[in-house]
Amino acid sequence: MPQTLDQQMAFLAEIEKLKSVTRATPIHDASRPENSAEHSWTLALYAVILADQAPAGVDIFRVVRMLLIHDLVEIDVGDVPIHSQNGTAHDSTAIQEAEAAAAARIFGLLPKPLGDDLHALWTEFEAHETPDAIYAKSLDRAQPVLLNLQAGGGSWIDYDVTLAQVEERVGTKVARGLPALWDWVRARITPWFEARG
């Protein structure tokens, strides 16, 4: 038992580092960037509050667990903003490999089988093929859009993002798991982009 507790506490100490990972998206009032821990916590609440919108068969408890751990790899890799690829080389293979190595290291801090279970849950999220992962990924893509809207444009302005880019990079993933949410979001972001010309 002491060794198990040592491993659990080492993992919990490690994940505190997620609070210092800065994201591109500002918080609602644009006063500062969101951090990855805040993002994960918010997504867990999104999963609970929007549970009535989840497709049949989605296990909300599994989704909450998935969302709480989905960005732990950013402790090693940092946040890779979805729109940072505008006009630059964006090596998604290298990023995926770095994130996989980070997942192995971070979840490897935990005793088995818990570490293996959480690592498998993270892998499932990344693949976004199961109903739980599709729902989780839809929320993960929707939340930054809503923050950018609340913050007056946020990272859309920083990265010179167009509505077409949001629809392609975000809308397709949100609509896959939560089509009504994407319709709701799109109706609110379209006027913002149109007003910018």
Task: Outline the structure in words.
Keywords: Hydrolase, Metal-binding. This is Hydrolase. InterPro entries: HD_domain, YfbR/HDDC2. One of its GO terms (cellular component) is cytoplasm. GO terms for molecular function: 5'-deoxynucleotidase activity; metal ion binding. The chain is mainly alpha-helical and 197 residues long. The protein has one domain: Hypothetical protein af1432 (Orthogonal Bundle). 66% of the residues lie in helices and 4% in strands. It has helices at residues 2-15, 36-49, 60-69, 74-77, 92-107, 114-127, 131-150, 154-158, 163-177, 179-196, and strands at 22-26, 33-35. It has a two-stranded antiparallel ribbon. β1 (22-26) and β2 (33-35) form a beta hairpin. The longest helix is centred in the last third of the chain and has 20 residues, at 131-150. The protein is globular and about 60 Å long.
Question: How are the SSEs placed, and which strands pair?
Answer:
Elements: H1 2-15, E1 22-26, E2 33-35, H2 36-49, H3 60-69, H4 74-77, H5 92-107, H6 114-127, H7 131-150, H8 154-158, H9 163-177, H10 179-196
Antiparallel strand pairs: 1-2
Helix pairs in contact: 2-3, 2-7, 3-6, 3-7, 5-6, 6-7, 7-9, 7-10, 9-10
Q: Class, according to the CATH hierarchy?
A: Mainly Alpha
- Per CATH, what is the topology? Hypothetical protein af1432
Largest sheet: 2 strands, antiparallel
Spell out the CATH superfamily.
Hypothetical protein af1432
- Percentage of residues in helical conformation: 55-70%
Structural class: mainly alpha
The Cα radius of gyration reads 17 Å
Strand/helix succession: HEEHHHHHHHHH
Distance between the termini: 62 Å
